[in-house]
Amino acid sequence: MMSRRRPQTAAATQASALARIERELCEPPADPAPGAAGAGVRIRTARLLRGISQAQLGEAARVSEPTIIGIEQGRSWRGDVLERIAKALDMRAGELAGWN
Length: 100
Prior knowledge:
By secondary structure, this protein is an all-alpha fold. It is built from six helices and no strands.
C-alpha cells in the first residue's frame, strides 16, 4: 500500500523556500568560466537580494531553471537571454554583463 503525501501548507512551503535561499547565500558560487563569471555572480546576487529562487527567475524571464543555474555557475549566455533576465530583475543587461 502506497502512502499518500500530505500537501504542504503555505507556511511550510515558505519555510522551505527560505531555507533554500539561506543555503544559496551560504554556498559560494561554483568556479565560473572566464568571461561569463561576472554576469553569473551579478545575476545570483541580484536574485538573492530580491528573495527569489532560480525557478522563479527562470519563469519571470521565460527561460528554464537549468539555464539560470548554468549562467550563475559561469556558463555562457546569449544576449536575448541576458536581456530577459535583466528585465525580470528590473536591471539593464549591461549592468549584468559588466559592460557599464
